[in-house]
Design a protein that fits this description.
With about 140 residues, the chain is of the alpha+beta class. The protein has two helices and eight strands; from the N terminus they run ββαββββαββ.
Length: about 140
Amino acid sequence: MIDIKTGNITLDKDFIINQNSTFDSVCKMGLGEILEVDDMVNGWTWLRIKNVSVSGLFFNISFAFNNLTLKELSFIVSDKKFDLESNWVDWREQNEVEKLKTFKDWLKKEIGRQRKFDWGEIWADYDRKGGFSSIGLRYNQK
């Protein structure tokens, strides 16, 4: 799925995301069940796509575009579809800590131990302020 030489993310043979991807090109892929756009009105736009199916796994992906060019993204992965109706009532810090371990294991299996590359970097982290764990990927500036 993630090419460590290029930073390309292959969702399937027809859907490849990379640092040249634009907001419009990702929107037109028709991925997932729900597509949400959050224009920050400062050049940054967030595109969130939920329940993207790839090889039997499901992803919720948040793309960060600056001037409509992809700069970074974050995502979560699960072997089951995400419950899009869940809310903070269901939230538990211990669950997020367990997700972090799962995400770190997924990254290790997907790309090995290396986290910095010529094209950018990738990591898994728990954001205590936001209350969630995720995998992040940032492309180097061109």
